[in-house]
Amino acid sequence: MSKPSIPQGTRDFNASTVQKRQFIFQTIRYVFETYGFQPLETPAMENVETLMGKYGEEGDKLIFKILNNGLDNPQKKASIQEGFDKVLAGKNSTAITERALRYDLTIPFARYVAMNHGQLTFPFKRYQIQPVWRADRPQKGRYREFYQCDADVVGSDSLLNEVDLIAVYIKAFEQLKLPVEIKINNRKILLGLAQVCGGEDKLIDLTIAIDKLDKIGWEKVKEELNNKGFNDAQQQLVERYLNISGTNTEKINALANLLGENENGKKGIEELNYVLSYHQSTGMDQHLVADFTLARGLNYYTGLIFEVKAIDAQMGSIGGGGRYNDLTSLFGVPNIPGVGISFGVDRIYDVMEEKNLFPTSVDHTTQVLFFNLGEAEAQVAYGQMMTLRAKKIACEMYPEKSKFDKQFKYAEKKGIPNIVIIGTEEVNKQECTIKNLATGKQINLPFKDLLTYPF
Questions:
Q1: 3-state secondary structure of 50
Q2: Which of 274, 284, 286, 305 is packed most tightly, with the most Cβ within 10 A?
């Protein structure tokens, strides 16, 4: 029998890891709900046509498709075999796969809004915390199965939504005690740059190339632009654009000079200034960095875009999002504007673990272990344990009568801070012995006072 294993890019989570992840989820969920967002869940799989063509050529390659079931049915098996033959001949075939695992939470959300827009109250604010799947090459901080936490507002053009979503980011990371900077740019600025470089049709090639800048460097980006038909003058213009530096104000002024009177560029700068000025009054602007190298390669973004980086951490982005003003039109329902952000929980976890930012109490579930000293004693101890559980104090009892040493070691290995001993003598006296394993402090306490003891 072969050694058991799990698919590459996936992970098992032990109790400590799950508890730390739940701490992140609960913190983000609390902030979402404080800002008026309501929960939503969508299926793990979507129809292939729902996902394909929504993430650009690069993204489409990373979608996990699900092989059609029915191989036990001779007629269906023949159909699937015919589908394989078509694929081998270079043709697409729905006989092989009609469904796929969701790539992100945004497209399924857009599909949900398109299907239910007649029953929704707009602006519709939802948050979603669920796993997604990507056929990416696994590496540090990049997995094939991972969680996203999204918050989106649809049905409103107001830039106050962008202002508020930035505040959600900042408040959530403050609660997690994780210092971050939020990079901000605008796809209208990138569109303006594409137009100045020769035409709107260059936008997708331009954003895909710029989005790789951190990974492959300027020379490789230049090579890619050259292959996509950008001439020397256009490449020099892009290089000047990417080299803009200074304070936010200095960068925006330099950008305005570079793009001149281009209308999309001017509109993008205006929206950027709006958000920055709002957060100057809240004091949150100290976390915001105008970064014109930010492109967000997904094609559906149309306005302001964001990316979150942890300060002093060797990790890629831990969050991102932006404005997507016509996403539902992909599903036949036009003119519903939207904007959203996403938290990369797995990367956030890795950074917090690296920086030792989790509270020490986060992985302590059981607070009290009741020793098992025999059937009669255990019945009395069980009754006392249930009174503590009713007070929402996490307790458990050792299941077998065992030596003290074995039960002590169990408590120590599980990190249980308190033990309660109820033996024959304690039953007769209607009291228990309580010991704190961290301090070594031990006291005898009447049963009637157990509920008020500060475990």
A1: helix
A2: 305
Tell me if the bond preceding 131 is cis, omega within 30° of 0: no
Domain ranges of the chain: 15-43+101-354, 368-452
Residues 211-232 have pLDDT tens digits of: 888 888 888 888 888 888 889 9
- Asked if the bond preceding 123 is cis, omega within 30° of 0, the reply is yes
Order the strands of the 124-133 sheet from edge to edge: 38-39, 124-133, 145-154, 338-344, 319-323, 304-310, 180-186, 288-290
3-class state of residue 443 by DSSP: strand
CA distance 227 to 220: 11
435 closest CA partner among 452, 455, 415: 455
- In tens, the pLDDT along 15-33 reads 889 999 999 999 999 999 9
The fold of the 15-43+101-354 domain, in CATH, is BirA Bifunctional Protein; domain 2 (3.30.930)
The verdict on domain 368-452 having CATH code 3.40.50.800 is yes
